[in-house]
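Pipeline run #58 for the internal structure catalog. This entry was flagged by the ingest filter as a single-chain record with no existing model, so it goes straight to prediction. Upstream metadata was stripped on purpose; only the residue string is passed forward. Reviewer on rotation: M.T. Logging verbosity set to normal.
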Amino acid sequence: MNAGTPHEAILALLETYFEGLYQADSALLASVFHPRAQYVNTAPGDERILTLLEYQHLLDQRVSPASNGEPRHQRVISIETTANTMAFAKVQMSMLSRDYTDFLTLIREQNQWRIIAKVFHYQPTPQGD
């Protein structure tokens, strides 16, 4: 994830992130997360904070949206970078009958961008979408 400008590199990382979520592929997602990353769910009644390993275990038990034939909907709302060492991305994805908004904090180490924190919220997808 170190090609081109920081913005291009982060967009490539986010594409891998979206694909990993859609496939429920913990190994693919591990490639974009920092080993000490935090996973923070802020949805009322489902709040939790997990390590990357705990998050991978959760993913490994999930039936992927891809295997269920769900359509893949995602978008990058914004990307902000500072000093080419840290970045913030706001993204949205719909899957598993939920609409997710993720705030992703990234850091750049050894010429590679990685997600150090995933803080997100979800709500049920409105019927008809």
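catalog note: Helices lie at 6-23, 26-30, 52-60.
catalog note: Strands lie at 33-41, 48-51, 73-82, 86-95, 98-109, 112-124.
status: ready for reviewer M.T.
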